[in-house]
Structure prediction request, 215 residues.
Amino acid sequence: SAGLTQFPTVIGGVVPVINVPGIKPGELVLDGKTLADACIGTVKYWDDPEIKKLNPDVNLPHTAIAIVHRSDGSGTNFIFTDYLSKKSAAWASQVGAATSVEWPAGIGAKGNEGVAGNVKQTVGALGYVEYAYAKQNALTYVRMINKDGVAVSPTAAAFQAASAKTDWAHSASFYVVLTDQAGHDAWPIAGATFILVYKQPSDPAKLKEVLEATP
Prediction:
């Protein structure tokens, strides 16, 4: 409408990251309910039976889980809390999904960089960041059990798989939520970023240059 058209530019993932001594990247597996229970405070230690059941072969320490969350409003917050709301009735009713929520507990940090920094500095930490920040900061990511019951790692292919069944052409108001999507390889905490441009731009060459430069 209004002479605008949309371009889906980036499909990325929000990644739970941890700081647990002895645990390597991708070694720990969580599902949505357990992740929500940790964030809401009913799962308090890394060796809680709920986590051990998912990780019978991992040596989990009796270390308190320290939640690190965004203190500022963000799309990352919305994607993460939307996913938790879909996997936990308690989270949905007590906290909900929004760009900014009242966290039950934990350490607030500004931006992905703030969360990444606090996770690196805090033993027992559990936080969430956009994939690029997890990679750039060499954070220990967890694998997630997706809607199809498959434990998947955060990769570009897994983020793309989350959007495989999306009807982009009929998405109202340029708005698509890609959390908890079906698909064997789908990462369950994903989202899309769009560019809106004029259908008849004043400078077509410049628009072409911008779109080609967008990852």
Notes: The mean pLDDT is 88. The first helix runs from residue 32 to 40. The longest strand covers residues 4-19.
